[in-house]
Design a protein that fits this description.
- By secondary structure, the protein is of the alpha+beta class.
- Strand 13 and strand 14 form a beta hairpin.
- The chain folds into two domains: 130 residues, Nuclear Transport Factor 2, Chain: A, CATH 3.10.450; 160 residues, Lipocalin.
- The protein contains five helices and 18 strands.
- The radius of gyration is 31 Å and the shape is elongated.
- Helices cover 19% and strands 48% of the residues.
Length: 328
């Protein structure tokens, strides 16, 4: 769609007294732009920003790239630079493929003309998830040039995105939400849910042998800004606690953990969480150590999702809370 500006000026002609009679003053040159024209300019740039967000939300990479000049430049919030419409379109196409549900909201904060045919726009862009709402907000600066009546982006630079929630860092772990059971010599029941604002995943667990609960506890999984990684904090009913760093693998996650038993003995292990399918997970702990003693690797355990209405699943959190009270 062609966008153009309509410049208009107002000329007030005042008659002047002259000994030979009233004469018309010489015509003033038409202004290139007046203060009255700038609101129209801002309106046009804001409309362009809204059209860009609409193209983004349609997941149309070619349409998005058309807002740049043919040789325009895009620098994303990670500092990567893309030159020209084909490269920009390819980058957006890859983003849309990886994030098909995300939408964008744009807020234009300022529009200023710096020269004839040259405008700088500044604002912020927020990515929104249909499940979690606003996720991240990044600031941007766009340099527009006027070509054939259209305002096109010659350069767009984004600042580092600031998370509105920690959800973007944990989205790949959302499949953990629900109730899970592992059966063997002991029965391990686990319940996982989001905390408020989806900043953390809260997992509670109980280990039972026969009718007796032998161990229970809780694990909090979240984003640790001090190390810039997904991490977890675990506390059990025997007084032990631990910390783990999560690293995504081809088929799940590796958790490198260390902790302390109630008596002060240091512990360490590497745990592998393998996602077999939507309702099945494999778990194994290797390289285990307690103090100076190396412990054998555990056998691989298969964990199954349990329907929410399952009595065993519904008892998970109650058992954990009951065991914690018994410890007190």
């Amino acid at each position: 769609m062609r966008l153009s500006l309509l410049f208009c000026g107002v000329l007030l002609a005042l008659p002047a007294l002259h000994p030979l009679g009233a004469q018309e003053p010489p015509a003033a040159p038409a202004p290139v732009a007046t203060a009255a024209a700038e609101p129209e300019l801002e309106k046009t740039i804001r409309a362009t920003a809204a059209a860009f967000a609409a193209a983004f939300n349609e997941k149309d990479a070619e349409k998005v790239a058309a807002f740049w000049t043919p040789d325009g430049e895009y620098v994303n919030d990670r500092g990567q630079t893309f030159h020209g419409r084909p490269a920009i379109a390819a980058e957006y196409a890859a983003f849309f493929a990886a994030n098909p549900a995300l939408t964008m909201e744009v807020e234009v904060e300022s529009v200023r003309r710096v020269a004839a045919g040259l405008v700088v726009e500044e604002g912020s862009a927020t990515l929104v998830s249909p499940e979690a709402g606003p996720l991240t907000t990044s600031r941007y600066t766009t340099v527009h040039v006027q070509q054939d009546g259209d305002w096109l982006a010659a350069s767009v630079r984004e600042s580092q995105a600031v998370p509105v929630s920690n959800y973007p860092f944990l989205a790949e772990l959302e499949w953990l939400v629900g109730q899970w059971v592992a059966e063997g010599d002991a029965i391990v029941l686990t319940s996982c849910r989001w905390t408020a604002n989806r900043h953390f995943l809260l997992r509670t667990f109980t280990v039972s042998e026969g009718d007796a609960t032998t161990l229970s506890g809780m694990q909090i999984v979240g984003w640790d800004p001090t190390v810039g990684r997904v991490a977890s904090w675990i506390f059990d009913s025997e007084g032990g606690h631990g910390y783990g760093i999560w690293t995504q693998t081809a088929d799940g996650w590796r958790v490198d953990s260390h902790g302390t038993l109630r008596d002060g003995t240091p512990t360490s292990a590497t745990n592998f969480v393998t996602r077999i399918d939507e309702d099945t997970v494999g778990w194994q702990s290797v390289q285990r150590r307690a103090g100076t003693v190396d412990l054998p690797d555990t056998e691989r355990v298969v964990v199954k999702r349990v329907p929410m209405e399952s009595p065993a699943a519904n008892a998970t959190e109650e058992d954990a809370e009951g065991a914690a009270k018994e410890e007190e």
